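Annex B. Sample input.
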Amino acid sequence: MIAQMRDIVAAELAPTATPEHPGGLAAALYAGRHVEFFTYGFADDATKRPVTPDTLFNLASLRKPFEAALVALGTLRGELRLDDPVPKYLPELDGDYIRHVTVGELASHTSGLLLPTDHPPWPNDSYSQVQFIAMLNAWTPPAGVAPGKQRIYSHAGYVLLQLVLERCYRTPVARLIESRILAPLGMHATSIPERGPDNRAIMDDDAMQRVVLGYSDQGTAIGPIGDQQSYFDFPGAGQMFSSARDLAAFVAAAVDGRSIDPQLREALRMTQRESFHVDQRFGQATFGQAMAWETVHLPGVTVVDKPGGLNNASGYIGLVPAHRIGIVLLANRGEYPHEIARYRILPALAHLVVAHGG
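Annex B, continued. Sample output.
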């Protein structure tokens, strides 16, 4: 069955990463303790450096499930609560709206927040932490928006969640993720590096030699190797970098987890539980929101997934927990068509497992 799964994945991915496409693609398939890797194209088109399972990509919003896992782990350990209002950790948040928002609403994108950094036209400026707090305090919602009453995707909400976690534990978020998630899962190639004055990730030479150069979907190089983009000019607000190999370990823990710490396993499962039904339909699909993850209900299968992207990077993690299947897609170009995993690859793999009595 693994050979059939590999054929399904390869048949779908190959047309999306031909020599006519900029950059390259690294993918990982996890299926019942078996891992397969798929690599295409180049980490840097000019030097023809090939993509490998150990190539490091900018994860963009694929960072969010890791912060959600910190929240879930903290609740299981009694260190914080989902219904804690955010001013418990940041008392300087005293605006009429923001003081009613909870930690759980930030994690599940139900806070109602929608700041200028969340949507086009994208601002030209970056914000210090003081300016960010002031923006949150001044924010007022459109009519009908209230904490916990709707799902509105908010990058700023997760930046605020980062600050909540750092205040709660008095530790930088990168160190929290490393010590509580990455190290226990053996993800030694994954990090949230700080940004240098040139907006490049600060990494050692060995890591930097494995990082991709990012491209637009039209093939224009955007930024230097190790480019980090952020509207927030304070520590920890850049992107995470990882490889297909490392993210395969994260997927294995998320859908299987038989060999990891039981509390971490339960935290990862907790992040995947739908907490808000989205009144939206796409064909036969219906949707929900969990902690960072989205839930996609298709005929005969539920996919739990998270896409992420910038103008020079695309990522996707998709899970079918019921069948212990997961996939990772990492591309060093904007607008990679990750929907093929959600609507074609993962349903096909799940149906194959069912047909084999799994």
